[in-house]
Amino acid sequence: MSNSIKEKSNFNGIDRFDRRSFLKKSAAITIGAGAAFGSSLLSDSLFSTSAFTTSSAYANNSNDQELKIGYIPITDATPLLIAYSLGFFKEEGLIVPKPVMVRSWTVLSESFIGGQFNFTHLMFPIPIWMRFKQKIPVKVLAWDHTNGSALTVHGDSNIKGFGDLGGKQIAVPSWYSTHNYMVQMGIMAKGLKPVIKPQGAVIAPDEVNLFVLPPPEMPPALLGKKMDGFIVAEPFNALAEMKIKGRIMRFTGDIWKNHPCCVVVSHENLIKSQPVMIQKAINAVVRAQLWCTKNPDKAANILSRDKGEGYLPVNEDVLLRVFTQYDLKEYLEGEPPRPIIHPEWNVGRIGFQPYPYPSATKFIINQMSQTKVEGDSNFLRNLTLDPDLAISELVDDTFVKKAMKDMSIYGLFDSGLNSLSREEVIEIG
User: What is the pTM of this model?
Assistant: First the structure.
């Protein structure tokens, strides 16, 4: 695999360590809501086994007049949370109960499939898996955010870049995640092999062992040296930096310029039966995204647990690092590899823009077909034969295009481009 690419168009987490003594050590630096997530997180490996079946009950929400939002406590959920907090949904005339925080991607996905939530954020590969593997009629309506993730390692390690990950253990939040295929893309570009083995197994010097771990468990596991690093969404990278001397190896937005991560999804039958409600919901989300680009410090305050409304279980200083401190000197010093190799890209640590560029969806589908996962991924081969058909079945961009048109917004908010197409830029470095 080339280091530079331009393109248009049943492992159950970490092994059972002494959890009681470990949590005593890490309690001060974890997110302060560990009890809410529960010990079951150690066995929550999203889609590593048959978490769902095609016979899963899929709620019919055609008569549902409420917008019910669920979210994972990561900054990916920011537009949904800000739209609720600032009253944008209410101003659109929508009935929206307070968004519900859930413990894991498995719980969020199951709850969405079961109809407990009808409007939420999911990592982009998850609705691809839902739609084409499990035959769940999910629709992607917009991008929720861009960038917003990083690969974090021990601060005292000698890991500087992907080429240094041989023989190491790296956690990902889900097999079907941007993070999984991005880390595999990076290590394969350096001649290394991604493998999925029990952590007690022998790992060859040219292998990188990957396993699934829910995001809230990652900083404590890194502190306990149960792994060498993790790749995940914020704020867990910033939390590790500030509380346990973790170090950012690479920001994902410096690998794939302004890449999508989480997307806004809803049920297809709800979209068909309640198009006005969905349009109003997307209007509110786009408005929130635009607001966040102009008020990142205020967004950090609102989401924080100590000074804001407590949507995310971390303090404001951690969120300020995520929203406003991408260009720190420590990220730019020294020769590559380093956390930021492409300052000229002018991207943020996290960004917000709504339009689901087809070129990015094509790249995700193609990359997923080359990525090692647990379970049967044969369904991906058919998608790569006709990605345009897959996109038309998966994505409904009519609502977001109308919202953007009504607000005189096109493309990336800060790009100045009056275009709904782009070239995908990926460079491993």
Answer: 0.87
